[in-house]
């Protein structure tokens, strides 16, 4: 089977709802047409309560809503979701739970986190790190190189239109779910929502993101129970500190042959002969520059 | 004078408070030391009211606080700021105004925008676009190439440690203020705060960002009254639509020789002979990839 058949979910760059063709001019003044990523509002309800309006590309509203509520501590891992209603015309998604919920108080205090903040209640997120212990999994560098090669060559909105973030959930060298969104946090939440809906164990997984390794990204990965976080981008000091506290394996600046690991080093098995790994080509370098915000 | 002396404010990559040296391993398993960007909490008060806690690198807390409040519509252009107190030990900044303020209601409803959302009250921001008319300024492509060259060669945290966003306020081909932050929205807000504090007219300015051209970025630029927005990164469809509505000149994917303009085209004067512009070198291409989130 083709390596892209390994995915359970992967981007559909040809979904006409996700991009728009617009006209403009280039540096010579010549008229051009180009694809740009859509960005639309989606209002998330938890039972009767309006929680937030997210700006998203709009695919997988159900996973986005559930993942957002999980990552906000508004949905508990043991909560039973009885129904998820998506009203495309209203741009509304409603998550219904067995447990009665009320987050009036919580919604009053918002804390903004860096790198695509979503008004996360930061105190709660910090608490969520207490007492979390990630499994002593193994992470082979041969998996890393196989994964990043597959991800970089998977057809995506990013390759079509740029200006979008991607996150991939993987096991060993196999990518399972590749989500994209204009908000990086949305891509993360869609994967969290998919894991919750499908009761997917986290302990053997690897989380790949195109975004930076900030405190918010580290906290979310730990909350998901995933022991390894990989990014082609860089680190923030607090991200590194939290990853060390939680014993999360934190690998950044992963491009071509190169990477830097700053936490959870004991999980890493250096089994890849680097003589057989290509340095990142100019094409990916150029493309990578589109991965902004 | 050196071209970097043109700046009124530019990054101080050697400020020890802004980066941390951490140890880890590289792809060969060899021990390495690397610089990472700091990320710390700063709680912003407007008079007696706690508004938000931002994750920031922590430079220019006064400009960040004022700019944030302006961009949240909590501070009006005609408000008189009587005092800005920064308590470094408490990580608190308090903005005091002549006018009594109370945003209890506003703080209850938060809307999350893509690309570094800050819980902006989106409805208000949309209203803010109504009736705004940007000046019929001129934008020469020769300025664009001179500016991007200067910005790319200015010593910065981005070149030192990566994983950070930058915004530059410029006039013609002269960069005036270059702000960086782990949250792109913070870099924007610091420039807005600087403009407010120094009563800087906006109509002849150019705003450059490393981040994507999202609805949020367009709205903020229009609210600041700046007629030209430039990014090395890509567009979202809503960003383009809003820029056209507000007649903002929107230029993206500006790298080396290349750029794409999708709104406000009539301000652009194509005066640069492209034979004299270098294509972006591999070094900048690679570096650009660090501009994530």
Structural account:
The structure is a homodimer of 293-residue chains. Chain A is an alpha/beta fold. Chain A has a domain at 139-291: 3-Layer(aba) Sandwich (Cytidine Deaminase, domain 2). Helices cover 28% and strands 29% of the residues of chain A. In chain A, the strands form four sheets. Chain A has a six-stranded mixed sheet with strand order 9-8-10-11-12-13, sandwiched between helices. In chain A, strand 8 (165-171) and strand 9 form a beta hairpin. In chain A, helix 1 packs across helix 6 and helix 3 crosses helix 7 (215-224). The longest helix of chain A is centred in the middle third of the chain and has 14 residues, at 184-197. Chain A is globular. Chain A starts with 18 loop residues before the first strand and ends in a 5-residue tail after the last helix. The model of chain A is unreliable at 110-121 and 285-293 (pLDDT under 50). At the A-B interface, strand 1, strand 2, strand 4, helix 6 and helix 8 of A face strand 1, strand 2, strand 4, helix 6 and helix 8 of B. Strand 1 (19-26) of chain A pairs antiparallel with strand 13 (258-263) of chain B, so a sheet runs across the interface.
């Amino acid at each position: 089977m083709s390596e892209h058949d390994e995915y359970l979910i992967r981007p559909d760059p040809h979904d006409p709802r996700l991009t728009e063709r617009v006209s403009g001019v280039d540096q010579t003044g010549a008229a051009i047409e180009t694809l740009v990523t859509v960005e639309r509002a989606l209002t998330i309800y938890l039972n009767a309560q309006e929680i937030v309006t997210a700006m998203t590309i709009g695919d997988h509203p159900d996973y986005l809503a559930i993942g957002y509520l999980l990552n906000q501590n508004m949905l508990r891992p043991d909560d039973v979701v009885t129904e998820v209603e998506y009203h495309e015309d209203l741009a509304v998604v409603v998550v219904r739970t067995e447990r009665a919920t009320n987050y009036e108080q919580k919604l009053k205090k918002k804390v903004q986190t860096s790198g695509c903040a979503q008004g996360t209640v930061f105190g709660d997120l910090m608490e969520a790190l207490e007492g979390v212990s990630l499994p002593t999994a193994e992470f082979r560098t041969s998996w890393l190189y196989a994964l990043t090669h597959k991800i970089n060559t998977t057809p995506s909105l990013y390759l079509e239109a740029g200006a979008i973030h991607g996150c991939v959930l993987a096991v060993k060298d196999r990518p399972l779910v590749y989500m994209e969104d204009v908000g990086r946090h949305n891509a993360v939440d869609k994967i969290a929502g998919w894991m919750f809906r499908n009761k997917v164990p986290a302990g053997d997984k690897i989380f790949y993101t195109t975004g930076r390794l900030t405190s918010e990204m580290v906290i979310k990965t730990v909350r998901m129970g995933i022991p390894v976080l990989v990014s082609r981008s860089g680190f923030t000091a607090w991200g590194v500190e939290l990853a060390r506290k939680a014993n999360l394996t934190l690998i950044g600046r992963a491009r071509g042959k190169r990477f830097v690991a700053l936490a959870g080093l004991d999980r890493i098995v250096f089994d890849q002969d680097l003589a057989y790994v290509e340095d990142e080509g100019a094409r990916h370098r150029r493309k990578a520059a589109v991965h902004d915000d």
